[in-house]
Structures are given as C-alpha cells and as structure tokens.
Amino acid sequence: MDRTPREAIHSVPGRDGPNGSNGSNGRVIGKAVALSLAFPAAVWFFGGDFGLIIGLVIVIAWWTLAPGRRIVWGAAVACMALAPVALVVQGLPGTPVVGSLFGVQHMAAHRLVQTSVAIAVFAALAELLGVRASPAVRRRIGGLVRALVRPRDGDGDDSPES
Questions:
Q1: For 74-131, what is each residue's pLDDT tens digit?
Q2: Each residue of 40-58: pLDDT tens digit?
Q3: DSSP structural state of residue 66
Q4: What's the CA gap between 33 and 40, in Å, rounded?
Q5: What number of H helices and E strands is found in the chain?
Q6: pTM higher than 0.90, yes or no?
Q7: Residue 29 confidence (pLDDT)
Q8: Higher pLDDT, 8 or 7
Q9: Residue 89 and residue 83: Cα distance in Å, rounded?
C-alpha cells in the first residue's frame, strides 16, 4: 500500500484519471454541458445582469479557446489584482469616513472582483467535476460553426445575372 496521494485519488472508482477521462467520455461531456448550462444561470442569480454576461463569456471562452487550468486560475487572480488599481485610478476618498457614494463611484473595482470570483468559481467547479474543454472538442465545435456559417451552394446568392 505504498501509493502517493495522487495515485490514491486517481484509483478511486468513478474518479477521473490522470488523462482527464474515467473511461466514459459521454459522462465527462455530460458534466461539461451541465456545467455550461448551470453556471451562467447561477452567476445570473447571484450577480444580476452583469453576472449573466460574465457567466456566458466565461463558458463561451472555455468552449472556444479551451484554456488550461492555470490560465483560468491566472485570469481570476489577474482580475482580483487589478481591482485595487481600479480603486486608485478612480480616486480614493478625501475624508476619513467613506460614504455610500464611494461604492457607486467605484464600479470598475466592483466589477473586477465580481469577474474574478466568477472565474474562480468556474475553475473550481470544472476541477471538481473533472471536466476540461479539450482542443479536440474545440475543433469539433469549430467545424460545426463553420458548417453553419458557410454559405450553401445556391442559397443566398442574390447577385444579378447578366
């Protein structure tokens, strides 16, 4: 029983293996689709209209760009690191007591923190569920989009014939 913690985790039945697949690719894709549908709705519930926009952008970027885990977590950290910069750029309060208008006048920092938390939650959920948007999925979706966008022969050809 001399196994490393990583080997012990990956040997649990039903848990994704080191290559991101637990043998049933359909289950992993089902989890990815469920996450892609539920996440924007949850962020909309907790973050309002801006949350819905952020949730949709995160999911669309995840499916189309297929970023690695480090990139997703790095984006969350970068947004959080930019929040204090936005506060300073928009101006610090001139009095020792901060009024209620301070929050309203500094929405950029608020939105950056909201975006950072949403990205971090998505990254955490994707890791917990063991799903990744692989480049193969990205190519498949790209082929589908190109097939939908590509004009068909004889359709939409409104050029005048001479």
A1: 999 999 999 999 999 988 877 788 877 887 888 999 999 999 999 999 999 999 998 8
A2: 999 999 999 999 999 999 9
A3: -
A4: 12
A5: 6, 0
A6: no
A7: 80
A8: 7
A9: 10
**From CA 146, how far away is CA 136, in angstroms rounded?**
15
Query: Tokens 């966008």 sit at which residue?
Result: 149
Token pair in block for residue 136: 């193969």
Largest CA distance in the chain: 82
Between CA 74 and CA 134 the distance in angstroms is 18
d(CA 55, CA 39): 6
Between CA 111 and CA 84, with CA 47 as vertex, the angle to 5 degrees is: 25
Residue 135 burial (CB count, 10 A): 11
- Dist. CA 72–CA 122, nearest whole Å: 9
The answer to whether the CB of 122 falls within 8 A of the CB of 63 is no
Quick check: 34 and 146 in contact, CB under 8 A?
no
Q: What is the CB-side half-sphere exposure of residue 124 using CA atoms within 13 A? A: 7
Q: How far is CA 27 from CA 30, 34, 99, in A?
A: 5, 10, 51
Encoding tokens for residue 38? 């539920």
